[in-house]
Amino acid sequence: MLTVPVIALLQGLLGASSLLIGAIVGIIWQPARTFTAAIMAFGSGTLLSAIAFDITAPVFASSGFWPLVVGFILGGTLFTVIIQYIDERGGFIRHPSSSRRFLYHHRQEAASEVLDRIGHIEMLHSLTPSEMQAIIPLLKPLSVGAGTILCQEGTAGDALFLIVSGEAEIRKGNQRLAILGAGEMFGEMALLTGEERSATVLALTPMELYELDKIDFDGMLTRSPHLASGLSRILARRLRETTQAKLIRIESPDHWRQRVLDSVEVDLPISEHQFQQLAQRSTPVAILVGTLIDNIPEALVIGFNAGIGHLNSAFLMAVFISNIPEALSSSIGMKQAGTTARRILALWVGAVLLSGLSAMAGTALMHITSDWLVGVAQAIAGGAILAMLSSTMMPEAYEMGGGSVTFSTIAGFLVGFWVTSSPLG
User: Fold this and answer.
1) Contact, 40 vs 395, CB < 8 A?
2) Beta bridge partner(s), residue 175
3) Cβ contact 303:363 at 8 Å
4) What per-residue confidence (pLDDT) applies to 329?
5) Which residue ranges run through the membrane (predicted)?
6) Containing H/E element for 202?
7) Which of 56, 135, 348, 370 lies 20 to 30 Å (CA to CA) from residue 270?
8) Which of residues 88 and 185 earns the better pLDDT score?
9) Quick one: DSSP state of residue 196?
10) Which residues does 166 contact at the CB level (< 8 Å), separation at least 6?
11) How far apart are CA 52 and CA 133, in angstroms?
12) CA 285 to each of CA 28, 98, 172, 196, 343: distance values in angstroms, whole numbers, following the listed order
């Protein structure tokens, strides 16, 4: 006859075994978004049912309301803090939502670094924050020595330059027309017309600049035609050299900079090469640890149920179904990051085994502490599961499947309730 810890281990392994199914699917096939969304929504519904009827109700009946309050707050907080820590160390790619959060912060950091260097270029303030955000990824840092010819009179105009530091002179023939310094720009007409340069620009001192290539800019224009009007505003402002122009109120650089950073979007186009670079910053171990953090609360609840001699079919079903889309998206991300199929499968086998051991730990906890603390521990697991649902599964399901996931979620909840209420539940 099987002992209680062994039963908990087997149930934990069973609930987590779908991680391997999702991993294999992610390695060999990428299903349609609507299909993945339906599974994710159904799993969300079953887990919501499990939280309500298999965690909250029993804890309230045995220990009262306060263990639920304490546990759910602790569980949600711990999950959020730990997952944020894991994502910052390479685990972000295991979920589309965490990937988007990482991409958002990555773009904010990149934009902040560039704005620290070019925010003093007043002419750029003619661009709206969204226009500036579209241009920032195209800017290439450039360092040149004194005497470098940056633009040659009579050659095709193929780039715009922003001066971060240093000085340059504008010459037409043998005549010096002007001296340019930090905070100024030149070559902007080339981005709109591509006409020949009307003057030569020569570096007088070592210079730090940003270059905006016409080819890159034209590619961005096909996706964001409004940038042309933004550049036109820059040209118009360049021509306003009257007293009236000087009286125009200029927005403070700090306020403009903050508005640009606040306009960062995650749905700006990203190339396959850029995604590969981001994916390389992820690490399989961090992805595995992040997935375990998602699954350990569920495994502990399985162990708690086994400890009281209760085979909870509804909760096992909820865990089994919800693990499939998570492992699927994580495996796709690891594959894009260059992890081999063998290593991906090995990592998920490890996740399954650790989930089983976590279920055994849940059973052991039942016998070494008071009922009140067990109730708190169950509530902590419930809070962590609810945090996972609200931050990843449900938002991702809706984004991928739209309003149709409503019915999948309802179906999952009702099936979970039916299984819980049935004699086998």
Assistant:
1) no
2) 172
3) yes
4) 72
5) 6-28, 35-53, 65-86, 344-366, 372-389, 401-419
6) strand 200-203
7) 348
8) 185
9) B
10) 181, 182, 203, 204, 205, 206, 207, 208, 209
11) 44
12) 21, 16, 60, 54, 11
Flag whether pLDDT at 43 surpasses 90: no
Give the CATH architecture of domain 129-262: Sandwich (2.60)
Q: What is the pLDDT of residues 250-271, one digit of tens each?
A: 456 667 667 666 665 544 444 4
Note the residue count of the chain. 425
Round to the nearest angstrom and report the end-to-end CA distance of the chain.
22
Q: How far is CA 219 from the centre of its chain?
A: 25
Q: How far is CA 122 from CA 92, 141, 420, in A?
A: 37, 19, 65
- Give the separation between CA 68 and CA 270, rounded to whole angstroms: 43
Quick check: 224 pLDDT over 60?
yes
Strand, helix or coil for residue 382: helix
Collect contacts of 53-56 with beta carbons under 8 A, ≥24 apart: 53/314, 53/416, 53/417, 53/420, 53/421, 54/301, 54/305, 54/312, 54/314, 54/315, 54/420, 55/301, 55/378, 55/379, 55/381, 55/382, 55/385, 56/379, 56/382
When pLDDT is cut at 50, 70 and 90, the band that residue 242 belongs to is: very low
- Cβ within 8 Å of residue 148, ≥6 positions away: 202, 203, 207
pLDDT of residue 262: 64
In the predicted model, what is the mean pLDDT of residues 388-399? 85
Residue partners of 85: CB distance under 8 A and separation at least 6: none
CA atoms within 13 A on the CB side of 256: 20
Among residues 284, 288, 285, which one has the least CA distance to residue 339?
A: 284
| SS3 state of residue 165 | strand
Question: Is residue 326 within 8 Å of residue 263, measured between CB atoms?
Answer: no
Where does residue 122 fall: left (phi above 0), alpha (psi -120 to 50 degrees), or beta otherwise? alpha
Q: Residue 224 to residues 118, 134, 218, 227, 265: CA-CA distances in angstroms?
A: 22, 8, 10, 6, 14
- Please name the amino acid found at residue 316: L
At residue 22, does pLDDT exceed 80?
yes
- Amino acid, single-letter form, for residue 24: I
The first and second tokens of residue 349, run together, are 């086998």
Distance CA 121, CA 250 (A): 12
Q: Would you list the domain boundaries of the chain?
A: 4-104+274-421, 129-262
284: confidence class by pLDDT, cuts 50, 70, 90: low
